[in-house]
Each structure stands twice: as structure tokens, then as C-alpha cells.
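B., you asked whether I could sanity-check this one before it goes into the benchmark set. Here's the sequence:
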Amino acid sequence: MPRILRATTISKKYLDYFYQRHPGLLPAGYEEQVKALEWDAYAEVGLWKLNLHRLPGYEVEEVYVNHPVLQKKWAEKHGVPYHTGSPDVAILRAQIDAFRPEIIFEDDDRYFNPAFRDQLKKQFPFIRHFIAWDGYIRSDTRRFQGCSLVLTCVEDIRQRHLRHGTSSELLPFGFETSLTERIGNAGPPYGVTFVGNIIPDIHTLRLRTLYALYRKAGAELWISNFSNRLMALKRRAHYYRKASVGDWPAIRGLERVSRGAAYGLDMYGIFNRSAVTVNVHGDQVHEAGNMRLIEATGSGACLLTDDKPNIREYFTPDREIVTFSNREEAVEKVRYLMQHEAERRKIADAARKKVEENFSFYGRVRHFDGYVKKLLY
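And here's what the prediction gave me:
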């Protein structure tokens, strides 16, 4: 009977966004807040627990290691002392001791490192394995020492871990099909959209493509780290220093038109009501595989994405998605799609069917289950 504790980091930007939309939730108890977070389904929150419990024999708990409100509420409920500032590692240790997992599944870079894993194994002999997620092409593979398995969505990352001597396997993202009932279809329809962020030294193609799509195709953009108000001077200086001078007009232009952030069900709702939504991988990512591929298509949007050598392992271009190789082609294909509604809807429907059949979240955890059983048995 696998007992898994999933240790998760939640983006501070998302937490600020979430509590701004649920201002009355902060005084609520631990279980009520967790339930609300899981319902919003940001970045897989709650989805692992929901789907692993569908498999026989699993006992799963999830803790949010960088969420000060929840960690303090858990500590108060269980009589665990904590510092009056931010919660410290003592709470996480107490959570591990309370649940007594065989496996810790890490999606966190705040606490977990080789030294901390060694300490935990000495303190808690019931821990048999650490499994980690790594979706960052620039990650420091040394940080994962002590993990029995590192899961990733990118073959390049898997090969980096294998060269470092750590076992690693591919695990593509999955879409939680029950989200379609949560999303609904209320709200305004959109034409061409993008939801995500832009880091100038990582997302140069994304920056240039989105600026072209805004200027020439009227794209509506929710860029989480670009405000529709002027960015703080410190952040603006950082972006201008990282980006080339030639990209400064695009940064200024997108600052002015970005609608800010959209996370969780709000993001899925935008995808659902979009005629076309855009995906552009990071500059150093040579393979398709990011979360937006599955989130957007599972939500029902017609996806326009940058072409990658392995894209056909996910979708068939021009039948289930549309691909582009440069910003000029992106603009051309968006204009075509917006003029051919029936074809666009046919592509979107085919992609959603493909996701339901091949890339559901339940299918994702069934693959995960196979890796767990190899470790334990």
C-alpha cells in the first residue's frame, strides 16, 4: 500500500492572486482553504491526490511547503510550534512524522537538497524513496542527489540527470477532464489569446511572437509578470538589462496591453472561450512538452504552437493543432484560422478528443504508478 507525501511549492504570485479573489477565505480553517485551492486547480494542486486515490491501495497527502498561512494553520491544529515570521522546516518535519510516508514526491526547491534528504532519512527510517519533478532546462542536477527517481516532461532534462547518475523517466503532462465541468462557458468570447509569462533572456521568441500577434492580429494577452500598469522601476530595469535593445519596444508595448495574470480556473476559462490560443516554448527548449500544450487543448481551444521535432508525439499538425516556425508564419496562420471558423473548430475538437484519450491526468498517474511499483516492489 504506497503511502506518498507530495511536497509542493505554490507560486507566491498565484497565492496573492487567489486570496485577492477570495478575501474572506484567509480566516477559514485548514481543510476549507485546502479544498478551495484544490478546486481552483492551479498547476496540478490537488490533482495528484484526486487521481492517485482512484488507484487501489494508495494513501496520499499533499502539503504546501511555502504557503505560510496553511502551514501555520496546520501547525496550530496539531500543536506544532513555529516561528512568528514565516513557517520553518519544523512544520514540514512534523507533517512527515504525522503521515509517515514511504515516498516523498517533491515539487519543491525551497527545502529539498541532498543534505536535507539525508537528514530526513536518518530522522524518519520509514522514508524509502524520494521522487522529484524537474521541468526546468537550466536546473542544477546536483540538487537532486539522493532521489531514487527524477521525473520530467523533456528528454533533454532526463538525459542530463542520467549523465549525472540519477534515474530519470519521462512523464508527459495530463489534463484533468473533470475541469470542463468546473470551467463552464460563462464569460466573454475571445479571439486570439496568450496566458503565461515572459522572461526576456528565456522567452525571446515568445516576446517577439506575441508582440507581432498583438500588433497584426489583435491578440489579447494575460502576461503574469507584465502589469497593465507601469512595472516597478526595479523590475523594469532588470527586464531591459536582460533583453536586447531591439526588444525594448516590444517590452514597453506588451506592458501597456497586458491584462495581468490569470491562474487556475480563470486561466482555463480563457482557454475555453478562445478561438485560438498561443503557445511558445522557451528559447533553450528543443522539444515540445510544456504544460500549456495540454491545458489549452484540453480546455477546448485551437492551439497555435511553435514547431518542435517531437510535436507529433503529442498532436498531428493541421489536424489537432497548428504549428509555426517564426513570428511571420504565426501571424499568417492566426489570420487564416480566424477566417475559417469551421476548420478551426474541427482542429480544436480533435485535439480535445486526443487529450481525453491519450493525455488525461488519470493516465498520467497510471504511468506514475508503474514507476512507483518498480521502486517499491
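One thing to flag: The domain at 184-358 is CATH 3.40.50.2000 (Rossmann fold). Otherwise nothing jumped out at me.
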